[in-house]
Amino acid sequence: GKSEPKIDAEHVSVKDWDEDEELKEHFEKSMSVLAKLANTEIAKVPKEYLPLNSVDARSQDSSVAHFLFAELKKALNQNDTDCPTVDAVLISGGNIRGGKDYPEDHDRFSLKDLKDELQEGLEAVIVEMPGDLIIKGVKATHGESNPGYMQFDGGVTLDDDGNVATIAGEPIDEKKTYRIATTLWDIEDGPSEPWTTYFKENPDKIPDNDFSIMSTIFSFFAKHVWKQVFKSLDTNNDGKLSKEELKEIDLDGDGKISKHELAVRMKKLGWQVDENEVGFVDCIFEVAGDKNKDGYLSPDELDLQ
């Protein structure tokens, strides 16, 4: 018969070999991209969401989801005057993908954190639901671990029996109709049978318009930073910038704001910035009014007085 192969094994130290320079260079380039993302702070995390955690978001409440969905709700409601655009955000935990147990003092949310937690293509819709349907629908997903385990914004709480107790910090009214930001999958194909049944029976209540969750949150964070920068420059609090006030940020004296000058100002205000990662700064320039996209905020774009 055939003889059995003889296998020899020994432990060796990889330090005994010279580094592969090409592989090392490739690794360092890859890690530098991640470092830029990690060093780009995009939001401060309120204390009520600390410590952040996104482990097992398919089977338990996630403080990362509560934080991000609270910010998404603020973003959707930021221009409201009378009634809010949405009362709550209810989105399945399978979309919270970081699986991370953050350090207790991790209160600076970075661009890397956002990209780790949310997929860029995730889209949401706004639907109307009666309170009793919200209660039944969320409860139906909170059994065994599943991608449809419903997560929610910080204004939603559950009672001891796992039923939704509050929406926007107020006791839920079973007969009231609420406006909810969720995903089409959650209402059409997810494990919440009360929801999928309701929307099958009421297809006219499914909206045609959806929106990107990632870009909505990202733009909202950018607006928040720009408001801080603007407020720090507007020393007389008249809601406008003067040529004199602009001098505080205009380091080279050319009468306009560059991306580098914005980054320097952000650092002065306590934001962690990696100037080689321009994605967030680009977004700030967009929301601040860089209409011609030339990478500068000109006197006209700033409406200088």
UniProtKB/TrEMBL annotation:
Domain spans labelled EF-hand: 221-256
Domain of life: Eukaryota
GO molecular function: calcium ion binding; hydrolase activity
Keyword Cell cycle tagged: no
One Pfam family hit: EF-hand_5
CDD domains reported for this sequence: EFh (cd00051)
GO annotation, biological process: nucleotide catabolic process
Entry-linked InterPro entries: 5'-Nucleotdase_C_sf, EF-hand-dom_pair, EF_Hand_1_Ca_BS, EF_hand_dom
Keywords associated with the record: Calcium
Protein name according to UniProt: EF-hand domain-containing protein
